[in-house]
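Notes, p. 3: input format for complexes.
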Amino acid sequence: MMNRAPKQIDVIVAEATLEAEGVVSVKLVAADGGDLPPWDAGSHVDVYIEPGLIRQYSLCGDPRDVSSYRLGILLSELSRGGSKAMHALDAGHRLTIGAPRNNFELIETAQKSILIGGGIGITPLMSMAIRLNQIEQPFEFHYCARSYRRAAFLQELMQEPFGYRMWGHFDDEPPQMFSPDVHLAAPDAGTHLYVCGPTGFMDFVTGSALALGWAPERIHTESFNADAVDETGDTFTVHAARSGITVEVPSGRSIAEVLFDHNVRIPTSCAQGICGTCITTVIDGVPDHRDSYLTDAEKESNTEIAVCCSRANSAKLTLDV
Ligand code: FES
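Output follows (321 residues plus FE2/S2 (inorganic) cluster):
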């Protein structure tokens, strides 16, 4: 079976701290008392909150610190249980998380980096700022929030050695609001832009950057919307090579569901392209990747697919199941 389950780690909540209205930080330590797996700036972990409920949170601490992980969590008004459960955590609570994954890698050799976070989207950028400061690379760090009062981690960031690189932009203080024409003007080939936040915010910043002449390959984004994955599209054929069956996958149904109907069982967990449980080897064909688990490089290699949500850009896919 070429399906691969992600590594899981048992952790304990060491601290849960209210950072601002609606935002907590949670410090996790390994349940066995040892070090946690190494990670790099921009990484996130999957948190297995309860069966069928998995959420991704960025690591927002110092990437050199493997004695604990720190997460920042916004209580979502639209919470379907994830952020509410995370906000209810107390010290001593046990959790299972996935090993860190990075779909938002920092290019440490860039001549300059501009980090722009909207609201809780600040969290992966915090680890990037800490790292860039460690390796003495120039950067600007823009924090956009509805109000100063709701800007979690701002005071802490201002007190870091890189505090003088911080820019605060608040909707209730118009003179300070982020302006692409001012802050993203005159892009040069050595500068990379990192944007994380709500979808509308990211669309605004990246759209503005492109209009100002930024090259798409120098704009890096990450979003953690737990929206339902779009499973619509043309019908395609899947051949399960080792099982010896061929099925048709219609619009609105996943490969995993259709194969399950034919007694080919691929383990799934989140069914949203988040956790990696269902990742399966592709022998032939071109996937239409709709997950947020595989990295861009993994997606481009066309060698693996999240069968809980992804579809096909070729008429037929052959899978190693
Ligand atoms: S089941 Fe989680 S990525 Fe497919």
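DSSP finds seven helices and 18 strands in the chain.
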